[in-house]
Design a protein that fits this description.
This protein is 41% helix and 27% strand. The two termini are 32 Å apart. A hairpin with a 2-residue loop joins β5 and β6. The chain folds into 3 domains: 68 residues, no CATH class; 45 residues, no CATH class; 102 residues, Zincin-like, CATH 3.30.2010.10. A 4-stranded mixed beta sheet has the order 1-2-4-3. The mean pLDDT is 89. By secondary structure, the protein is an alpha/beta fold. The protein has 6 helices and 11 strands.
């Protein structure tokens, strides 16, 4: 059960653990702040630590806010939408014919029929992002199958709210969140490797992390940046 402190207008959840050093985490999307503190740590120690990290906290909270605003876009010309980690300017072009999307450099041209509603535009965009993942994912799977020593028998794609991927180790299939097309390619690669390793080891135990560290030693850094919105 966490305690709560008010430090300079910030609400901080504090959880005491048998650890040696203070640990600070800022969670998306709201920017909630959590401190894991040694059991012997005083309230004053925690307050001073939070104060010393104030700039870092604000930087990450602002970043989460920017990404939260992206989720509430109205799908009109001039907005920025991410493609493989790069912000691209959306241009909505109304004309007769089948809807489609063309990407030119850092510009996304969304062709729709006149008076197309936001919901339909979102469906077109989601389908396009799905096609990007469907094109990129098999290449990463093929790259890592001989290294990890597994055979992926099926890749499924779905827009998910709370997971970047999942694995059915018994059927040797993986499922990928189509929203990964908005992240950098290394995020997609990390998630694919993560789920492929689960075919060998279903649990997040020592064996699982040993395999991850062996084949993709930078995974922790990528996961951290990915969940913080940096990638």
């Amino acid at each position: 059960m966490a305690d709560y402190l008010q430090v300079g207008g910030l609400q901080v959840a504090v959880e005491y653990k048998r650890i040696k050093h203070l640990r600070l985490t800022v969670y998306p999307p709201e920017g909630k702040i959590k401190i894991s503190a040694p059991v012997y740590c005083t309230t004053r120690d925690i307050e001073q630590f939070i104060t010393s990290k104030r700039d870092w906290i604000e930087k990450h909270r602002q970043k989460y806010q920017r990404h939260a605003n992206i989720k509430n876009l109205s799908l009109e010309s001039g907005e920025h939408h991410y493609v493989w980690g790069i912000p691209c300017v959306l241009e909505v072009i109304e004309k007769k014919g089948n809807p489609r999307i063309e990407k030119e450099g850092q510009s996304i041209k969304l062709f729709v029929r006149p008076n197309t509603e936001k919901k339909k535009k979102a469906e077109i965009m989601d389908t396009w992002y799905r096609s990007l993942i469907q094109e990129a994912a098999p290449q990463f799977v093929a790259k890592w199958e001989p290294c990890i020593g597994v055979k992926v028998k099926g890749i499924y794609y779905r827009k998910m709210k709370s997971h970047w991927g999942s694995c059915n180790y018994s059927s040797q299939t993986i499922r990928l969140n189509t929203e990964l097309a908005k992240k950098s390619p290394e995020c997609l690669e990390y998630v694919i490797i993560h789920e492929m390793v689960h075919i060998l080891e279903p649990s997040h135990n020592r064996h699982f992390y040993e395999i991850m560290n062996k084949w993709y030693p930078s995974w922790k850094d990528i996961r951290k940046k990915m969940n913080s919105g940096e990638l």
